[in-house]
């Protein structure tokens, strides 16, 4: 009898030990950061399980939001995430994400880690990390960012090509980002390696222009984010501007929101009239036109005195090279940067605008 009791007790101990073992791993900030870096090439899935309001206040670069407090967390996670790829979860302090990690492992996710101490611990470790000129140079090398420098009233003006529709502008001591996006296709940008933003401008809601994670990664106290109304609604913060709105932002910076839309039959669905923005930025005495996703619309005739223009060229979503040329001849910028051009060959635009008075500079804005 005693032998049976001992065996039962031993079995209970083994069962209890097995039940108490976690299928996921708790990592401190250093371990969590190492895990992220080591698994970037393995399809890492970084997940913020806080609320949308918390997420909008700032997150870890590249994180996807799946709110643990909303009903159906497990079902939403299974639809969003790949069970075969590594998952790293975090919340404010580590409690919600621990529960989320347990659910994910129960649902069959193979590799799940949780950030102990949450984003509070993460921010405490990284709050003293200062961005330096050397770090910017390293980021430029890493991402192949091409640089164009100008002089403007109030300070130097530097344009950095990041990729596609993402542009980084330095004006004096201020930093400005247009449509920053963390990941698109095969390329990605770690915005923690770039300076925090004083101003962020978002043209519209498509994933190659609007990325809440990139906005959060670049934001600091006092960052001004300007968006079209739809994106302001999605982000639940920021300054909404509709077509025709004008604002003086300070620091020698002003902005005008201008129309951006498709007007070719059959393309209107891509960018309907009245929804999306282009922007005209006045930086000191320089006027920069960021057209956003648009065709050569009639409103471009009202865009005047432009020093630098960014015009898109990837049919059928924006303009053909011929439309781009017509738009350039309408706007008459001193310098034109074709951007957002994907696989479209924009080299012929140089000859097509020869003797037009428009200097064409082609950079890596695929």
Structure notes:
The chain has 366 residues and is of the alpha/beta class. Helices cover 28% and strands 26% of the residues. It contains eleven helices and 21 strands. It has a seven-stranded mixed sheet with strand order 6-7-8-9-12-13-14. A seven-stranded mixed sheet has the order 15-16-17-18-19-20-21, covered by helices on one side. A five-stranded parallel sheet has the order 1-5-4-2-3. Strand 15 and strand 16 form a beta hairpin. About 5% of the residues have low confidence.
Placed side by side, the strands forming the largest sheet appear as 6-7-8-9-12-13-14
| Tally of individual helices | 11
- Indicate the proportion of strand residues: 25-35%
Shape: elongated
Total count of strands: 21
Low-pLDDT segments: 4-20
How far the N terminus sits from the C terminus, by CA atoms, comes to 78 Å
State the major sheet.
Answer: 7 strands, mixed
- Compute the average pLDDT: 88
What percent of residues adopt helix (DSSP H or I)?
25-40%
What class would the helix/strand composition place it in?
A: alpha/beta
Give the radius of gyration. 24 Å
């Amino acid at each position: 009898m005693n032998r049976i009791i001992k065996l039962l007790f031993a079995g209970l101990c083994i069962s209890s030990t097995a039940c108490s073992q976690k299928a996921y791993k708790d990592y401190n900030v250093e371990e969590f950061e190492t895990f992220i870096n080591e698994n970037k090439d393995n399809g890492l899935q970084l997940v913020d399980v806080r609320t949308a309001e918390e997420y909008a206040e700032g997150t870890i670069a590249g994180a996807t939001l799946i709110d643990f407090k909303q009903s159906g967390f497990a079902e939403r996670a299974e639809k969003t995430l790949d069970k075969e790829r590594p998952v790293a979860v975090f919340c404010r302090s580590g409690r919600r994400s621990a529960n989320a990690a347990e659910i994910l492992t129960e649902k069959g996710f193979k590799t799940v880690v949780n950030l102990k101490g949450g984003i509070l611990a993460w921010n405490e470790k990284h709050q003293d990390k200062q961005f330096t000129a050397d770090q910017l140079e390293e980021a430029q090398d890493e991402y192949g960012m091409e640089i164009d420098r100008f002089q403007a009233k109030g300070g130097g003006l530097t344009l950095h090509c990041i990729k596609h529709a993402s542009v980084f502008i330095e004006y004096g001591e201020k930093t400005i980002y247009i449509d920053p996006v963390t990941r698109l296709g095969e390329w990605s940008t770690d915005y923690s390696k770039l300076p925090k933003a004083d101003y962020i401008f978002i043209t519209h809601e498509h994933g190659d222009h609007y990325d809440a994670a990139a906005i959060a990664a670049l934001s600091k106290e006092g960052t001004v984010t300007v968006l079209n109304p739809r994106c302001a609604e999605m982000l639940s913060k920021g300054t909404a501007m509709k077509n025709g709105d004008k604002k003086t932002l300070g620091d020698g910076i002003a902005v005008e929101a201008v129309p951006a839309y498709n007007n070719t039959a059959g393309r209107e669905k891509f960018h309907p009239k009245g929804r999306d923005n282009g922007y005209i930025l006045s930086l000191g005495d320089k006027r920069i036109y960021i057209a956003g996703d648009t065709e050569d619309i009639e409103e471009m005739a009202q865009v005047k005195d432009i020093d630098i223009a960014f015009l898109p060229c990837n049919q059928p979503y924006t303009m053909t090279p011929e439309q781009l040329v017509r738009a350039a001849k309408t706007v008459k910028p001193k310098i034109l940067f074709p951007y957002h051009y994907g696989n479209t060959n924009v080299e012929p635009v140089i000859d097509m605008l020869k003797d037009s008075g428009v200097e064409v500079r082609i950079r890596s804005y695929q």
